[in-house]
Amino acid sequence: TEAEWEVAAGRADAVQLEGMTNAISEWCSDWWGPYPDGTCRNPGGMASGSVRVIRGDSVTDRMGSIPADRSAFVGFRVVQGALPPDISYRQKAPDAAFSDVRQSGKTWLPVSENEPVFSGGTDFFRRDVIPSDVPYWDRHHVPSLTWCDNGDLLVTAFTAPNDGSSQIAVLLSRLREGSRQWDVPACFFIAPDHSVNSAVLWHAPDGAIHHYNSLSGPEFRGGFAVTKRMSFDNGATWGPATVVHDRGRVAFRVWAQIDLLQLNDGTWIFPSDAGGHNEDGTNLFESDDRGDSWTLVNRYKWNADQYAQDDATAGWIAGIHASVVELNNGDLLAFGRDSNINGFAPFSQSNDGGKTWTYRASPFPPIRSGQRAIIKRLNEGPLLLVSYTDLTASYADGTLKGMEIVDRAGNPRTIYGMFSSLSFDDGQTWQHCRLIPIDPDGDLYSVGDSAERGGYLSGVQTPDNMIHIVTSRRYYHFNLAWLKEPMPAKVNIKREP
């Protein structure tokens, strides 16, 4: 147990134990959890969990990882002897997000095709109600959103003091069907002293909810593995985590953080950044076994001198954090960040299943740090793209350009921040560009807080045709009729009564 390891490490010299604090850490039998208050005799850790304790390197350092993880930096120590007869295990009551989850299915009735519906700008992690035993650093990032058969929505995001911190936790919240308020956030996944700074939730075609998470080596050594857990009860409980893509020795990294997609032939795909730099682009992985294993599709670094060049072809997607959609003819279309073409964000298109990609400039402004766009096929047929009009840095240095749209009266207007656009011809042309506002009753044409300036986007469309998206902070939902509605011609300033 962890307690036995700690006592042995403290007396290693006296009892002639070697290697207790060298560079190789050791597995313990305990499920990881915060230490309890007060004292405890013969503790055995949590009664259940997803992460086992790892000790070593430093006597006081507590690491942890999923039992399926393998690393050259973690071993084990063989001990012969019985566990203490009075060993004690700790139980933890289920968090609100996993409690009283309705298991009956929702009857999905399509929303009106003509009546616009919009609601948004609500925080999905309510900072004022986060329990003290949930790790939270007043910051959250890299969200993922999905839906459940019972009508609930689930959202995850990681929280940490900063992106490079070894103290990282993935939190989860639930928006119950019919509710306007998200549940109190719960700790969803944690592996101490490992980076877990990206998670992906996905509603599989069979109704199971999948959770994929990147997992670095201990103390960030050895690159990223990709883990998988599944829930068959609308996210109330989750199975054990398995490794579906090992770290390996490859020329690129595998970082699960972008929405998954099922192609028309049944193949599952997920995009993953090829590297850690803005010009490294995006790789594409596919699975034909329900996500149990993933293989690289594209030809990374092939024709590298043509990468992200207008009307040229190379072996991977232009721009990091790229979102991918399937076109009606079976081609794949991706929208990436950075690797801009002629001053615009890049489109990449593949007609060979993702092996090679041809590049062109999109009609949309480039995005960069703190921003991630999405491109989706809506149930009704058109493509939806959601992105940002300006770089986040532009708000600070005054280099804002905004984006011109046409208002309800047919007049050109400039908008700033998060916007949407629709394509009815598979990405050849785009129309119905409009702002996605924090407050629809505010000044929609201001440079201030009319819309979010940045954030990583994730989105789903539920069977009732409602569209749901999250940024790194807020949740919005709307329908196609609202997206097609022109923005008002006059500035409508909300006045206090």
Secondary-structure blueprint of this entry?
Blueprint: H1 2-10, E1 25-31, E2 43-46, E3 52-56, E4 58-65, E5 74-75, E6 88-90, E7 118-123, E8 141-147, E9 153-159, E10 169-175, E11 186-190, E12 199-203, E13 209-216, E14 224-231, E15 242-245, E16 261-262, E17 268-273, E18 282-287, E19 295-296, E20 313-314, E21 320-326, E22 332-337, E23 346-350, E24 357-361, E25 371-372, E26 374-377, E27 383-388, H2 392-397, E28 403-406, E29 412-415, E30 418-423, E31 431-435, E32 455-456, E33 458-461, E34 467-470, E35 474-478, H3 480-484
Parallel strand pairs: 1-5, 2-6, 25-32
Antiparallel strand pairs: 1-3, 3-4, 7-35, 8-9, 9-10, 10-11, 12-13, 13-14, 14-15, 16-17, 17-18, 18-19, 20-24, 21-22, 22-23, 23-24, 26-27, 27-30, 28-29, 30-31, 33-34, 34-35
Question: What would you note in describing this structure?
Answer:
The chain has helices at 2-10, 392-397, 480-484; strands spanning 25-31, 43-46, 52-56, 58-65, 74-75, 88-90, 118-123, 141-147, 153-159, 169-175, 186-190, 199-203, 209-216, 224-231, 242-245, 261-262, 268-273, 282-287, 295-296, 313-314, 320-326, 332-337, 346-350, 357-361, 371-372, 374-377, 383-388, 403-406, 412-415, 418-423, 431-435, 455-456, 458-461, 467-470, 474-478. With 497 residues, it is mostly beta strands. A 5-stranded antiparallel β-sheet has the order 20-24-23-22-21, with no helix packed on it. The protein has a 4-stranded mixed β-sheet with strand order 4-3-1-5. The longest helix is centred in the N-terminal third of the chain and has 9 residues, at 2-10. The radius of gyration is 24 Å and the shape is globular. The N and C termini lie far apart (63 Å). The model is unreliable at 493-497 (pLDDT under 50).
